[in-house]
Amino acid sequence: MFKNYLKIAFRNLWKHKSFTLINITGMGIAFTATILLAMTAMNELTFDSFNKNKNSLYQLYIETHRPNNTETNSTMPVPLTPALKAEFPDIVHISRYGSIGGSTIRYNGKEFSKLIRTTDADFLRMFTYPLISGNKETALNNKSDIVISQKSAEAIFGKEYPVGKTLNIKIHDEWKDYTVSGVMEDAPLNSSITFDMITRFENFPNYEPYADNWSSSTHDVYIQLNTGVTQAAFEKKLINFIHKYYKDDLEQLKKDGGRPDADGELLRLKLIPITDLHFSPILNTGGVSRFYAYLLLLIGAFILFIASVNFVNLSLGRTFTRAREIGMRKVMGAGRRQILLQFWGESFVICLFSLLMGMLLARLLLPYYKTNFYQAFSTDILRSPQLIIIFAAGFLLVSILAGGYPAWIMSALNTSQTVKGKITTGKNHRLRNSLMVVQFVLSGLLIICTSIVWQQLNYMRTKPLGYNKEQIISIPIGNNIGQERALELMRVQLAKVPNVLSVTGTDINLGRGRDGSTSNSVIGFQYKGKTVKTNWLRVDYDYISTLGLTLLQGRDFSRDFGTDSGVVIINEAMAAEIGEKNPLDANLDLDGSHLQVAGVVKNYHFKSLHKEITPLTMCIRKNWTLSYIFVKVKPENLPASMDAVNKVWHTVNPKAESQISFLDENTEKQYRKEERISKIFISGAVLAILISCMGLFAIVVLVIMQRTKEIGIRKVLGASVLNITTLISKDFIGLILIALTIATPIAWWAMNKWLQDFAYRIHISAWIFLLAGGIALLIALVTICIQTIRAAIANPVKSLKSE
Question: Which residues cross the membrane (predicted)?
Answer without folding.
Answer: 21-42, 291-318, 339-366, 386-413, 434-454, 680-705, 732-750, 762-786
